[in-house]
Amino acid sequence: MGAHVSRTDFEWVYTEEPHASRRKIILEKYPEIKKLYGYDPLFKWVVTAMVLCQLLILPFVKYMSWPVLLIVAYCFGGVINHSLMLAIHEIAHNLAFGHNKPLHNRLFGFFANLPVGVPVSISFRKYHLEHHRYQGDEVIDVDLPTLLEAKLFCTTGGKLIWLFLQPFFYSLRPLVVRPKPPSPLELVNVVIQVFFDAVVVKLFGLRALWYLLLGSFMAMGIHPVAGHFISEHYMFRKGFETYSYYGPLNWITFNVGYHNEHHDFPAVPGRRLPEVKRIAAEFYDDLPQHTSWSAVLYDFVMDPDIGPYARIKRKHFGLKS
Predict the structure, then answer these.
(1) Is 4 helix (H, G, I), strand (E, B) or coil?
(2) Residue 196 and which of 113, 252, 279, 295 are 20 to 30 A apart at CA?
(3) Domain Sphingolipid delta4-desaturase N-terminal, which positions (predicted)?
(4) How far apart are CA 301 and CA 257, in angstroms?
(5) d(C-alpha 190, C-alpha 224), whole Å
């Protein structure tokens, strides 16, 4: 299965996550960044256009052979669905309609979720906000690979398989390592999604639903846009736990590549994150950064110093409930 990774444990640190302190320092020097807070009025129209784009292609899917369907799903539909997942990420931060309209954001999350095929909008939010607040916490941050993942997928071939199966690990890991009772809105999310999927099958056939589901699956695995899953927090340089990417794929991913800026200022919508970097350039220019998400995936697989163990972890000091 190829070379074995050199690491045998995660990188344990005893400092707080870096973003809250850096945010405080930056705001002391550049208080005008607060003017960038709030929702993006263009966001809802971009997301609506992407959803409609997926709906408009469904009548044509039944005429596609399976090889053509897979190519279209990988190169087109999957990219849109991945962008919609990142739209759900923006919505989780209430950046579609603002913090004073939480229900509007949740309902729009249901809408953005539709072409993805699997109900994720509400569940993602309740875990993702903890990832921001407790980054690296061994118990709370479910973005961290489990010890079992790190031990099983510790060779070149193993890491390649892990990337391919990443949609399952990313989606199911929270339910296994930190299960929470489903909220009423999660159940609503499930009902709406199942109804939508049934309507797609009724109107356009089962192949149309497979087009949506396979696109979502493939674009979360070994795919250029999925490189952000690895680039954001895997430790490519010792001691650094968050990395930004400033390349062109940000144009179709709501600037999720500006990840240091996002963690420093989660109240700033993706479209305005480049302005954060421009204003506070001296805080970001010298941080390690990635120039290619595809290169990130390649290096993750081929570099023995990188793998599921290459994450910074912190001990959980909270009281047991």
Answers:
(1) strand
(2) 252
(3) 5-43
(4) 20
(5) 29
Rounded Cα distance between 88 and 84, Å, is 6
CB 278 within 8 A of CB 125: no
Burial 170-194 (b: 16+ CB within 10 A, else e): bbebbeebeeeeeeebbebbeebbe
- Listed in sequence order, the DSSP H helices in the chain are 19-29, 43-61, 66-72, 78-92, 102-113, 121-133, 147-152, 156-164, 166-177, 184-204, 206-218, 227-231, 259-264, 273-279, 281-284, 293-302
Q: Quick one: pLDDT band at residue 150, thresholds 50, 70, 90?
A: very high
**Backbone dihedral angles phi then psi of residue 150, each to the nearest 5 degrees:** -65, -35
d(CA 257, CA 86): 11
Nearest CA-CA partner of 176 in 209, 210, 149: 149
Identify whether the C-beta of residue 168 lies closer than 8 Å to the C-beta of residue 213: no
Q: 43-86 pLDDT, tens per residue? A: 999 999 999 999 999 999 999 999 999 999 999 999 999 999 99
pTM: 0.95
